[in-house]
C-alpha cells in the first residue's frame, strides 16, 4: 500500500455501495469514488501529468472537482487549487510560478487561460455541473493502483492570500495532510455513520482538507451543497450530524427565525474556523440551540493546530488546546519561549507543518526556528491550562508612540458596546505617533452609538495609547471568501487620513 494520503483513504474506505457524497440530484458511493478517481487519473496521465507534476484547478464546486483532487493524490501529482475569484493577472503569476503540467478551468475561461498557459500545459475544462472536456476524456474503465508516495512527497501546493507582497506557495506533503486528518478524526470523534453538511468552498484548506480529508479517513458521508445558502442549510440539517462553517455562516443562521433548537437537533457538532468567532455569536448560538460551537485554529501552512475539546469545556474566545503531536508555544521576537499568560508570537511544530514555500528557500529559512518551530505570525497567549487565545496577526500589530497595541483587545471592548455589530482596529500612519489607533465600526440598524461613545468607553477601560484616535463607521467590513476581515484594504483606504 502507498504511504501517501490516498493509501490512507483507501484503507479507510467502507464497502463500495456505501454512500460518500450526496447532491440535490445524485448520490455518489465509495465505489463511484474509486471508479471516477481512477478514470480521471488515467486522463491526467494521458495529458502528461505524473508524480510530482502540478495540476492547477480553478473551477466551481462540484463532486467531479473532489474526484479530480483524489485522482491527483492517486497518481502522485501535486494538487494546486485556485480561488475562483482570481483574475487573469493573478492566474498568470500562479502559472508562471508553479509551472503546472495540467490546468483545469471553467469552460468560459478556457481560451484566456490557454493563452496564459502557452504551450507548457494542457488546458481542460470543468463546469459547475461537472461537465467539460476533463470528464469527457475520463472514459477509462481500468483500475488504477495508487502511485507509491513517501510521506514527505509533495501532495498539494496552496498559495497564501498574499496580503503583503506576492502570494507564496505553501508545500504540503502527504504526511502533513494525512496526519492532520487523522488527528481531527480522533479529536472530533468522526465515525463512519457521521454525515457532514459541506457548505464551504473547496479551493481552501478548510473545505478541502479539514472537511473532505476527515470525512474520507472516517469512511463517512457528506451532504454537498454548492455554497452556503441558509434555506438549503436549514432544510439539510435534519439529515446531518456535523457542520463546519465560518463565523458568518452562524450569524446568518441566527438571523433566521426558523433556525431553532429543533432544527439543529440532529447535529452533534458545529465547528467554526477560518476567522475569529465573536463571543457574542458563541453565546447567542448556545442560547438558541443549547449547543456550544467548537472553535479551532489553523492556517494554510499547517492545517489545524488547535481545537476546543469534543468532551470538555469549549471556551468562548479561545481556540482550545494543541492537537495530538502538535507542539505550540508563544515566543518573543528572538524565539525565546514565554511563560503562560504572556502575549507573544505563536510558533508551532509537528507532522502537520509544511516543508516550506515553493522555490523560496530564503523565505522558508526566515520563517523557521533552528529547533524546527514555524513562526505563524499570529499573536496569542497560552493560559496555565493550555487553552490558546489569538490576539491578532503580527502584521496587524499597531505600534503607537512606540507602544504595542493588540487590535483584538480594543475590538473586544468595542464589540461589547450597545449598538455595535463588530469592529476592526488598524493602525494608520501618523506624524506624531508613528501609527494612530483607528477603529472601523459596523453599527446595528438604527443604533445611535457615536465616535464619542466609543472613545469614552475605551478611555474608561484601556490605557490612553490604546484609545482610538479615529472612529469610522461603515456598512460592512471587507472580507475575503473565507470570512476573514481584510485589514489591508482598510489600511489602504484610510491611509492618508492623518497626512
Can you describe what's shown?
The protein has 499 residues and is α/β, with parallel strands linked by helices. The protein folds into 3 domains: 5-195, 3-Layer(aba) Sandwich (Rossmann fold); 228-393, Rossmann fold; 397-493, 2-Layer Sandwich (GMP Synthetase, Chain A, domain 3), CATH 3.30.300. It has 15 helices and 25 strands. The chain has helices at residues 5-12, 30-46, 63-75, 88-98, 110-117, 133-136, 174-187, 205-218, 230-236, 247-254, 279-289, 361-367, 407-415, 451-461, 487-493, and strands at 19-22, 27-29, 54-58, 78-81, 102-105, 122-125, 154-159, 169-173, 195-198, 221-224, 242-245, 269-272, 294-299, 303-307, 321-322, 327-331, 344-349, 356-357, 374-382, 388-393, 398-400, 403-405, 420-430, 434-443, 470-474. The protein has a 9-stranded mixed beta sheet with strand order 2-1-10-9-11-12-13-14-15. Strands 4-3-5-6 form a 4-stranded parallel beta sheet, sandwiched between helices. A hairpin with a 4-residue loop joins strand 1 and strand 2 (27-29). Helix 4 crosses helix 5 (110-117) and helix 10 (247-254) crosses helix 11 (279-289). The radius of gyration is 23 Å and the shape is globular. It starts with a helix and ends in a 6-residue tail after the last helix.
Topology:
Layout: H1 5-12, E1 19-22, E2 27-29, H2 30-46, E3 54-58, H3 63-75, E4 78-81, H4 88-98, E5 102-105, H5 110-117, E6 122-125, H6 133-136, E7 154-159, E8 169-173, H7 174-187, E9 195-198, H8 205-218, E10 221-224, H9 230-236, E11 242-245, H10 247-254, E12 269-272, H11 279-289, E13 294-299, E14 303-307, E15 321-322, E16 327-331, E17 344-349, E18 356-357, H12 361-367, E19 374-382, E20 388-393, E21 398-400, E22 403-405, H13 407-415, E23 420-430, E24 434-443, H14 451-461, E25 470-474, H15 487-493
Parallel strand pairs: 1-10, 3-4, 3-5, 5-6, 9-10, 9-11, 11-12, 12-13, 24-25
Antiparallel strand pairs: 1-2, 7-8, 8-18, 13-14, 14-15, 16-17, 17-19, 19-20, 21-22, 23-24
Helix pairs in contact: 1-8, 2-3, 4-5, 7-8, 10-11
Amino acid at each position: 500500500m502507498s504511504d501517501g494520503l490516498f493509501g490512507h483513504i483507501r484503507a479507510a474506505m467502507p464497502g463500495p455501495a456505501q454512500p460518500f457524497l450526496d447532491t440535490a440530484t445524485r448520490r455518489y458511493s465509495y465505489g463511484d469514488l474509486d471508479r471516477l478517481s481512477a478514470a480521471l487519473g488515467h486522463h491526467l496521465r494521458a495529458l502528461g501529468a505524473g508524480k510530482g507534476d502540478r495540476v492547477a484547478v480553478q473551477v466551481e464546486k462540484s463532486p467531479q472537482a473532489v474526484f479530480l483532487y483524489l485522482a491527483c493524490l492517486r497518481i502522485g501529482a501535486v494538487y494546486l487549487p485556485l480561488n475562483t475569484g482570481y483574475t487573469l493577472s493573478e492566474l498568470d503569476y500562479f502559472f508562471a510560478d508553479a509551472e503546472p503540467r495540467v490546468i483545469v478551468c471553467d469552460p468560459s475561461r478556457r481560451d484566456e487561460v490557454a493563452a496564459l498557459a502557452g504551450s507548457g500545459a494542457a488546458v481542460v475544462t470543468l463546469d459547475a455541473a461537472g461537465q467539460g472536456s476533463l470528464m469527457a476524456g475520463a472514459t477509462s474503465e481500468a483500475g488504477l493502483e495508487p502511485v507509491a508516495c513517501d510521506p514527505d512527497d509533495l501532495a498539494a501546493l496552496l498559495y497564501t492570500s498574499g496580503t503583503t507582497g506576492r502570494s507564496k506557495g505553501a508545500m504540503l506533503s502527504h504526511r502533513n495532510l494525512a496526519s492532520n486528518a487523522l488527528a481531527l478524526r480522533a479529536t472530533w470523534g468522526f465515525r463512519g455513520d457521521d454525515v457532514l453538511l459541506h457548505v464551504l468552498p473547496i479551493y481552501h484548506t478548510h473545505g478541502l482538507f479539514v472537511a473532505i480529508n476527515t470525512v474520507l479517513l472516517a469512511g463517512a458521508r457528506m451532504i454537498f451543497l454548492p455554497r452556503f445558502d441558509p434555506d438549503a442549510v436549514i432544510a439539510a440539517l435534519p439529515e446531518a450530524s456535523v457542520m463546519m462553517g465560518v463565523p458568518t455562516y452562524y450569524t446568518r443562521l441566527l438571523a433566521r427565525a426558523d433556525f431553532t433548537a429543533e432544527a439543529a437537533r440532529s447535529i452533534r457538532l458545529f465547528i467554526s474556523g477560518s476567522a475569529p468567532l465573536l463571543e457574542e455569536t458563541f453565546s447567542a448560538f448556545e442560547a438558541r440551540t443549547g449547543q456550544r460551537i467548537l472553535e479551532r485554529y489553523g492556517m494554510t501552512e499547517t492545517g489545524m493546530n488547535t481545537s476546543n475539546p469534543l468532551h470538555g469545556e469549549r471556551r468562548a474566545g479561545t481556540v482550545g488546546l494543541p492537537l495530538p503531536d502538535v507542539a505550540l508555544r508563544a515566543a518573543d521576537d528572538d524565539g525565546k519561549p514565554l511563560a503562560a499568560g504572556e502575549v507573544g508570537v505563536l510558533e508551532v511544530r509537528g507532522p502537520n507543518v509544511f516543508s516550506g514555500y515553493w522555490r523560496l528557500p530564503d523565505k522558508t529559512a526566515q520563517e523557521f526556528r533552528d529547533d524546527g518551530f514555524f513562526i505563524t505570525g499570529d499573536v496569542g497567549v497560552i493560559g496555565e491550562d493550555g487553552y490558546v487565545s489569538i490576539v491578532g496577526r503580527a502584521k496587524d500589530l499597531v505600534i503607537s508612540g512606540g507602544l504595542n497595541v493588540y487590535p483584538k483587545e480594543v475590538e473586544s471592548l468595542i464589540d461589547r458596546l450597545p449598538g455595535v455589530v463588530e469592529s476592526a482596529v488598524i493602525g494608520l500612519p501618523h506624524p506624531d505617533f508613528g501609527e494612530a489607533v483607528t477603529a472601523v465600526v459596523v453599527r446595528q440598524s438604527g443604533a445611535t452609538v457615536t465616535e464619542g461613545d466609543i472613545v469614552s468607553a475605551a478611555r474608561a477601560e484601556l490605557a490612553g495609547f490604546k484609545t482610538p484616535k479615529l472612529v469610522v463607521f461603515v456598512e460592512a467590513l471587507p472580507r475575503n471568501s473565507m470570512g476573514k476581515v481584510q485589514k489591508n484594504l482598510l489600511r489602504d483606504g484610510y491611509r492618508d487620513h492623518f497626512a
